[in-house]
Amino acid sequence: MNQAASGAPAPQASLPSGPTRRDRALFAGLVLYVATLGVFTVNEIFRLDLFEWEIFTPELHTWVYELLHVLERDPNDPSLFRDTRSIEKTLGRLRDVLARTRYARVVTPGSLEDRLNHYLGSGVLEAPEVARASAKAFYEEGQAEARARLADDINAIEDWVTIPIFVKYLDHESLRMRHEVFALLKKVVEAFQNDPGHDQWRSENFFNYDPNAPRLSRQEAIRRWKAWIRTLDLP
Predict the structure, then answer these.
(1) Are 70 and 100 in contact (CB under 8 A)?
(2) Taking the mean position of all CA atoms in its chain, how far away is CA 128?
(3) Residue 165 and residue 35: Cα distance in Å, rounded?
(4) What is the DSSP letter of 48?
(5) What is the pTM of this model?
(6) 67 by DSSP, 3-state: which?
(7) Cα-based distances in Å from 74 to 174, 176, 203
């Protein structure tokens, strides 16, 4: 006899229970992960090394390209600062690049970034000729800072990042930029040579590279540079 015939009530389908402890834990972990991404960008991933916080970022290659892009702009180019809008755009971009490629997270009062913030804070109020002169001075100072971060400064970006990118830029279409990058590359590899941990540097003439040479000659020298890079124990 079935339940309907016997008059017994039919069993009701069980209602879904509330979230389990495991569900709540997974949700809390997801919230924490999203919050962490909101606090730390890729440039601010840290590792603990000998009880000291040391920055460790996969974005160093991006830093090099952004700083090289600063050097690619010629501050003597009239179109770079032709009007107030272009001045604000160019200097704003310079300020942002310097902010993203700085190891120290706090801007020093009176630093170039700090002065750019003050200059751009209320808009460019100077007369056009004065504003263009100020913008050119700011940009030239920014380029000097970019060179320091790429090769000169004590906190310069690691050579294993800069060397391959500099070699790539030796074939740049701009003669001015080829001279610029070659000067940076020579500084980096000379410091590399003087490091007791590296003894692979064996060229006294920088593989005969000449920024002024025809492209075929430059490419041959660049091939020698790339062959040397392959001999290095780079990360």
Answers:
(1) no
(2) 32
(3) 34
(4) E
(5) 0.72
(6) helix
(7) 11, 9, 31
Q: Which two tokens stand for residue 76?
A: 């003597």
Distance CA 187, CA 150 (A): 10
Tokens representing residue 32 in the block: 């924490």
Q: Beta partners for 53?
A: 48
Poorest-confidence range of 101-105, 118-122, 173-177, 192-196? 192-196
Q: How far is CA 80 from the centre of its chain?
A: 23
Tokens, residue 91: 């200097």
Q: Are 224 and 205 in contact (CB under 8 A)?
A: no
Please tell me which residue, 25 or 72, carries the higher pLDDT value: 72
Structure tokens at 18: 């509330």
pLDDT digits (tens, 9 = 90+) for 58-69: 689 999 999 999
Given a contact cutoff of 8 angstroms between Cβ atoms, the answer to whether 203 and 228 are in contact is yes
Burial 56-77 (b: 16+ CB within 10 A, else e): ebebbeebbebbbebbeeebee
Q: What are phi and psi of 232, to 5 degrees?
A: -85, 150
Tokens representing residue 121 in the block: 């804070």
Is residue 204 pLDDT above 80, yes or no?
Answer: no
